[in-house]
Design brief:
Oligomer: single chain
Radius of gyration: 30 Å
Distance between the termini: 77 Å
Strand content: 5-15%
Mean pLDDT: 80
Shape: globular
């Protein structure tokens, strides 16, 4: 009998095998099968022995890993430090403290342990500089905690000691962050007489694999378990002729799963040939040129409720604006990308009340009531820190008399803020409206690179229109039907002022004077928004949306760009992208402010096509991101390489551009040539563009990296594109009769904007 885990598999070769089997069962054995005698029995015995050997190897490997983990763990400090947390110089050394993950000191020691400072679920020594104080700057993001509140370890995305922003000379040793496959790079180096001489160290990444039994596939993909990824993204990738391996693997061309926030997931495992400083514990063994829908740290930076408020605090410091008396959006160069917010919670209101009162008093002049006269109240929206889908949101009217003193303001906050942690955000009281209805826009954008920063945006917003006409009067604030967006009408709410006006979709209009808008780029939209007109929308409102997105990303990038550089410095090269869908409100002057930024990559497909017919625009994402492999590049790559080489010699001399920089220029051209269905390059822009000029101010003059400036210079001096034709209906580019996305078609779009 061979004992395999918990089952005895017995092979009998004698005539009385059945009797022996019965006897074995009676003695406690559990045979999985009784195999006949002869050659078949010998074959089965050989197979079982091999299986047993494999299982024993797996068991030994598990034991070794567990043993190595135990040996690598630091010793417990609990008993040696008197069975309490906090400062413990007698065991942890001078400046050391004893802390446990997700645990706070019992109060016997003034130096309590913040939950995020320890890395293990038992007490170990940490640096006391982290104990008993607020870790870091409250305006900065704490990357040791995920967007869902999970502890990721205090070393997650910590900046390396001595890190400085690279100069152009440093990039000669950096890898790129593009989707270029190794074969294309080798051909380029061979053409220049440098075959096999990549300037970055060998990270020993694996090669992307394609399932061999799928003859129509030339690229592979993996998707997450979420419903929209399986129901929307998987069919999209299949239509683009990508195949999904039968077993889940990171060795694919496209990895589209739930966003990653732990730094080690972006790193391949450490291998013997890895250079010094290569981190251990990596689990993201992505191949060279792969595309992964996550950017290290960006989700924590912009994807949680308090994120925009934190970035606004950073912006106030850069510009010198007062955080309690900032200028109105119309008068400010920067920082107007969101409305002012305060993080509040029971037990924390005393420290917030004074600032909350001062801000309200100082900014009363920015608003006017709907009915005219003097402003008698302010509107605030209270959102749970980890909420989604409008769950737990409250609208509050703050009367001016509640600002008479700090005590009255504190009492108002105490009555209004529920238990838990909430974000109290200033509400736009004078918004732009659609035929008198408040609306906000779901805007789509894709971060295609962090350094250089490249962003594509969808040229139309996705309007979400309220079913009641707007009023900012106090009596309409609490119910929220008129002020806060709700896609479903407030049927049960009393409507004495007759504000309810249902806007049906076009298919169910039945003679209604209004139909639900599905785009912000047609004459129906331009004629119904207030202020109205194509010129106001295209020259004031939409450019304000573009500026808000770019400003947030430039501010956020400063805190995480070191992680991008660390990967590239060690030769880890693959493309990291992130799908963004901010919710934007525009005021009556055309100033756009973001309510929040959704970063979970949720794709709706045709789920609500009566209101949001955006399937073609969604499908086009697979083209300009490089998921389909940039099929048109074979027509122009040789000429593009000649032009970038000439440009680089003109800018940097005979040495030319770093290989990583040149690859990024190619990627930018590929992305633009494969953009369609209203997608366009939002950033970078030429020097002559108003958007670029908006960030040439004193506060943002150092925000652009050398690679950003090189891309801007290319767009300003050359901006070369190969000869091509553009479909007037879809915006799809074709070269020599070959289409960038031959299977995808849709409604009219803006097409390529050529960086203008």
């Amino acid at each position: 009998c061979l004992r395999l885990i918990r089952v005895n598999v017995c092979v009998y070769t004698h005539m009385d095998s059945r009797a022996r089997a019965v006897a074995a069962i009676a003695q406690g054995a559990r045979p999985a099968a009784v195999v006949p005698a002869g050659a078949a029995a010998a074959t089965e015995l050989s197979r079982l022995k091999k299986q047993l050997h494999e299982l024993e190897e797996k068991r030994d490997n598990v034991i070794k890993k567990r043993r190595s983990r135990r040996e690598a763990r630091p010793p417990s400090c609990w008993a040696a430090c008197g069975r309490r947390g906090g400062a413990c110089p007698q065991f942890c050394g001078e400046g050391g403290a004893c802390c446990k993950l997700a645990w706070v000191s019992d109060g016997r020691d003034p130096n309590a342990c913040p939950a995020e400072m320890a890395e293990f679920r038992y007490h170990t020594c940490v640096a006391q500089s982290f104990v008993g104080v607020n870790k870091g700057d409250p305006a900065m993001t704490d990357f040791s905690i995920s967007s869902a509140g999970v502890h990721l370890g205090r070393t997650n995305l910590v900046r390396e000691p001595g890190y400085t922003r690279p100069t152009m000379d440093d990039y000669y040793a950096f890898a790129d962050g593009t989707s270029a496959l190794p074969a294309a790079i080798e051909r380029h180096l061979s053409d220049r007489g440098r075959a096999g001489k990549t300037p970055w160290p060998d990270a020993q990444q694996q090669a992307p694999k394609v399932p061999k039994d799928r003859w129509r596939c030339n690229r592979s993909f993996a998707v997450g378990k979420r419903g929209d990824m399986r129901g929307v993204m998987r069919p999209l990738f299949t239509r683009l002729r990508l195949c999904e391996p039968e077993t889940r693997s990171t060795a694919v061309h496209v990895w589209w799963t739930e966003t990653m926030e732990l730094e080690t997931k972006f790193w391949p495992p450490r291998r013997p040939a890895s250079r010094a400083g290569f981190p251990e514990g990596g689990s993201g063994d992505f191949p060279e040129g792969a595309i992964v829908n996550s950017v290290p740290g960006l989700v924590q930076l912009i994807g949680v409720k308090p994120a925009l408020g934190r970035l606004q605090e950073v912006c106030y410091r850069k510009t010198g604006y007062s955080r309690l008396s900032p200028p109105a959006n119309a008068d400010a160069e920067h920082c107007g990308f969101t409305k002012r917010s305060f993080t509040v919670g029971k037990g924390q209101l005393e420290s917030v009340a004074a600032d909350f009162r001062s801000y309200n008093l100082n900014t009363m002049r920015h608003y006017r009531p709907s009915g005219g006269g003097a402003l008698r109240h302010r509107l605030w929206i209270c959102k749970p820190r980890g909420g989604f889908n409008s769950v737990g949101i409250h609208m509050h009217s703050l009367p001016t008399e509640e600002l008479s003193s700090e005590d009255t303001t504190l009492a108002w906050l105490t009555r209004r803020v529920p238990a838990g942690e909430y974000v109290m955000q200033d509400f736009e009281m004078n918004p732009m409206t659609f035929a008198g209805h408040k609306f906000d826009l779901r805007v789509w954008a894709v971060v295609l690179s962090l350094d250089p920063l490249r962003v594509h945006a969808l040229g139309t917003g996705i309007p979400k229109v309220n079913m009641w006409t707007f009023s900012n009067e106090p009596r309409h604030a609490k119910a929220g039907c008129s002020t806060h967006l709700t896609m479903l009408p407030c049927y049960e709410q009393d409507d004495p002022d007759r504000l309810r006006e249902i806007i049906p979709p076009r298919e169910r209009a039945n003679g209604a004077k209004l139909v639900y808008p599905t785009s912000t780029t047609d004459e129906y939209w331009f004629s119904n928004v207030r202020p109205q007109g194509r010129e106001f929308w295209t020259r004031v409102a939409w450019p304000s949306v573009e500026k808000a997105i770019v400003e947030v990303l430039l501010l956020a990038r400063e805190q995480i760009i070191h992680a991008d550089h660390k990967l590239k410095r060690h030769g880890v090269r693959y493309k990291r992208i992130l799908f963004l869908s901010p919710d934007v409100v525009i005021d009556e002057r055309g100033n756009a402010t973001m309510v929040e930024i959704n970063v979970n990559g949720y794709m709706i497909g045709n789920l609500h096509k009566e209101y949001f017919p955006i399937q073609p625009q969604q499908d086009a994402v697979g083209s300009f991101t490089g998921i389909a492999g940039f099929p048109l590049q074979r027509h122009y790559s040789a000429e593009l390489q000649r032009r970038t080489a000439s440009f680089c010699r003109g800018v940097l001399g005979e040495r030319g551009c770093p290989l990583a920089a040149e690859l990024e220029l190619w990627e930018m051209v590929h992305e633009q040539m494969h953009s369609s269905h209203e997608w366009y390059r939002l950033f970078p822009r030429p020097k002559s563009s108003p958007l670029h000029a908006a960030f040439r101010t004193a506060a943002f003059k150092n925000s652009l990296t050398p690679l950003d400036k090189l891309a801007v210079r290319w767009l300003s001096q050359s901006d070369w594109l190969p000869e091509h034709s553009t479909n007037r209906t879809t915006g799809v580019v074709s070269i020599n009769g070959e289409s960038a996305i031959p299977r995808l078609a849709g409604r009219p779009g803006l097409g390529l904007r050529h960086g203008k």
